Amino acid sequence: MLRIHVTGEDLARIRLADRPDPMWETVLSSLRFRDRRGPGTYGRWREQARHRLRALPPTLRALVPVGGYFPDFLTPVAPGGSWEERVELLRSTPRRRLRADMLTLDAESPQGLPGWVRALADGERKALDRVADDLDRYHRAAIAPAALWAAVQTQVDADRAVRIRHLTSGGVEGLLRGLRPVLRWEDPVLTADYPVPRELRLDGRGLLLIPSFFCWRHPVTFYDDGPRPVLVYPIQHTAPAPPAAAALGRLLGGTRARVLRCVGHGATTGDLARRAGISAASASEHAGVLREAGLLVSVRRGNEVLHTLTPLGTELLPA
Hints:
This protein is of the alpha/beta class and 319 residues long. It is 50% helix and 14% strand. The chain contains 14 helices and eleven strands. The strands form three sheets. Strands 3-4-1-5 form a four-stranded mixed β-sheet. The longest helix has 32 residues. The relative contact order is 0.15.
């Protein structure tokens, strides 16, 4: 069980990441690459990644064991930074951080670690460069292809739209309550299922919530939470229909184009009806066609269905 103790000061400092974090997605995807979880969600990606890579680099296999601890230095905190900037940040990891992380990994590993990990613990730049190079190579093959990263962004954007709606209607506590069932908010503690017992006291530092495509079942946080606590949580995956020629042909028409524009940063079926000046039934029908064409994603939350644009839908709208 993970228990996060939140003070009143922390509530004012809780933030929601505005995009998927490429480092967290890369590291977590290396777990999905090896396990069989979520076949409906990750099955096709897993097949494609294994075809391109054949095998996971041995550095990642050793540093990111399935079902166990992985070092904090692999996911440096760099909000808004590019992938290249994050890799360079990893390459500059201080020796004290490497030694602390490797000691923890060694203590958590029942089978022991390969010899090159000792060099990493000693802060040898060659060993760290090897890790960074392998992580970069894996990312570019398994995560970075444009169609795949667009799918990750689409799913995370859909989740963010739901969270922002909870935030605007219920404040930060509404945001936290809306994270069920993965996270449970009972003021002043946020709890979640977790592989090991863990107590995290924010003590006024706030919390950065990062929605993740490749996170599975339970959230993930740093072993050493440091000055900026982070909580990565699994999104609820949706299954947008692939674009089809017939569906795209049906898009022609002023009303449907207006509905697409009205989606904006997220809208329920009722919102679409009001914004476009049409009935709820008509808004639902138009949203269904847009969804079939791969231009939006629809997520059900209780009695509402929230629609968000895909990257393709965004590109079709005039600037």
